[in-house]
Structures are given as C-alpha cells and as structure tokens.
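lol forgot to send this yesterday, sorry. struct tokens for the thing we talked abt
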C-alpha cells in the first residue's frame, strides 16, 4: 500500500496489490472519516495501523462506500465501531448479491477468506452531508460505473473522492455509459483542487479538465465504432478489432487491466445497442439473457 497526503487533513491510500484501488481518510479533531477500503485485508489493516498512529484524529467514525464493488468495500468489517454509509442502491445490491459474489471471490482469491460482508447502515438517495470536527463532507450521486456510485466532496479543501466515476479508463460494464457521461460532465463543473479517482493517480487541478475531456472522447469513440459494427450486422467477436490504443485509452493503465476493461465496455455497448435495435419495429423476439453474477473483485 502506498500512502500520500493530499492536504494536512486528507490522505490517500493506494493498493499496490490490485488495480491501484484507492481509499482515503479525512482526519478531524473529532475522529476520522474513511472513504472506501482496500481490496485485501492485509492492506486495509495497514490503514488501520496508520490511523491508530494518528491518535484521536484517527479514530474512524464513518466509512463511506463509493459503490458496492468488493475492491472498495471488502475492508468494511475491519472498522466495527464505525457506521458504514452508502447509496440506497449500494445496500440493496449487497443485500441481494453480496454474499454470493463474496463467496465467488473467496474461491478465486484465498486472501479474502476472512472477509465478512458488511453493508451500509446509513443510506441516501441524491445527496447528504456529514459534519464532523469542523469539516463538511458532501455526498453526491455519481452513477455510471454502477447505478449506486457516489462521490465525496470535502468542502474546505475542494477535493472530490470520485469513486469509479473517475478511473484511468472509464468503465461501465456494470453500469450505464450515459449516466457516466453525465456524472463526469457534472464533476467538470465543480472547480476542484484535486480528484481522488477510484483507481490510479490523484488528479491535480490543472489536469482535471483535460482528463475528463479525454474520457468523454474515449466514450464517444467507442460508441461510434461499436454502433457502426452493430449497424453492419457484425458479430460480438469482431469487437476485438477495436483496440484501446486507437480509442484513446492507455493499455497499461491499472497494472495492464485497461485492455480487459476496454473489451468489457465494448461488449456492454454492443449488447445494449443490439437490444435497442431488436426493440425497434418490426418487433423481434428478445432472446433470454444469461444471468451474470457480478464478481466481488470486479474493479
Ligand atoms: Zn473499483
């Protein structure tokens, strides 16, 4: 785990074991607010130890989950004294699928054996605020990567923890491309000093607009390319010809995982566009879709 300070009271922890996942802590005289946890217990325990060394400022009062995915929520159980906060749909999805996807993740990743599911006990719909030790954190709804995505805005520092609404390659396989575009457009209006992305590097003020513009261009590029293929009746296998490099993304981002995420984006778009076409008259029968269980370790 890598630890950085973004300001006197805000630090960021980045996993060195899985996909550069980030978590953060806001330290106040009345205790700490943790934003997400890291994928594996050993790294989240490093956060626990670090916060202990901060004394009363490091006593965790709240853990905020930016969305339901296991790489951000698996460490919740290591903060039993804290209240967990998330979007209403984060709790609902974890209630429905959490145990099943955690079991699946444990099978694939033995390091997760001790993880226990802990879901938000405080939820909200559009926005909420936390006031602690003189700091104000605004929680805002930022869907797109998933339907339950939220961001955490630290008012005095103008820092946004964007969750996976911002990551080195936009990723919407489990979510919705249009929502993701709207969330990024909203973030662009916020005049921020820093963005802590859900994965990868912290963005500084001077990089934010350009990064969001690149992300939006990538989402437009793949839309046009996939739509062309759907219109031409191409098969899903043809999508491999659309490379991440030529779509404006970096193949090495997130420890090389970007290629895989890019392909999943294409598949999602392809299926969505095909489904839309099939709904157009004359009405064709929609084929039954395979049930896909969302893996708890999905980024
Ligand atoms: Zn993630």
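and heres what i got for the seq, position by position
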């Amino acid at each position: 785990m890598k630890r950085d300070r973004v300001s006197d009271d805000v630090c960021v922890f980045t996993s060195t074991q899985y996909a550069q996942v980030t978590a953060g802590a806001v330290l106040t005289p009345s205790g700490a607010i943790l934003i997400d946890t890291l994928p594996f217990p050993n790294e989240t325990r490093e956060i626990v130890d670090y916060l202990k060394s901060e004394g009363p400022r490091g006593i965790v009062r709240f853990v905020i989950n930016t969305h339901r995915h296991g790489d951000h929520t698996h460490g919740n159980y290591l903060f039993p004294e804290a209240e967990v906060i998330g979007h209403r749909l984060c709790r609902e999805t974890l209630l429905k699928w959490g145990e099943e996807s955690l079991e699946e993740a444990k099978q694939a990743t033995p390091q997760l054996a001790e993880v226990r599911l802990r879901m938000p006990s405080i939820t909200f719909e559009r926005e909420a605020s936390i006031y602690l030790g003189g700091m104000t954190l605004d929680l805002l709804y930022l869907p797109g990567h998933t339907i339950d995505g939220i961001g955490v805005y630290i008012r005095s520092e103008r820092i946004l923890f964007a969750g996976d609404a911002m990551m080195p390659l936009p990723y919407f396989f489990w979510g919705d491309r249009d929502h993701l575009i709207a969330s990024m457009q909203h973030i662009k209006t916020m005049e921020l000093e820093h963005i802590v992305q859900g994965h990868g590097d912290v963005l500084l003020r001077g990089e934010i607009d350009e990064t969001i513009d690149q992300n939006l261009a990538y989402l437009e590029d793949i839309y046009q390319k996939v739509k062309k293929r759907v219109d031409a009746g191409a098969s899903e296998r043809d999508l491999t010809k659309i490379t991440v490099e030529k779509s404006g993304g970096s193949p090495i981002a997130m420890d090389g995982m970007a290629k895989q995420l890019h392909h999943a984006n294409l598949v999602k778009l392809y299926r969505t566009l095909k489904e839309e076409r099939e709904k157009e008259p004359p009405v064709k029968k929609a084929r039954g879709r395979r049930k896909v269980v969302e893996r708890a370790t999905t980024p």
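Residues 21, 69, 71-72, 164, 198-199, 299 surround zinc ion (CB under 6 Å). anyway ping me if u want another try
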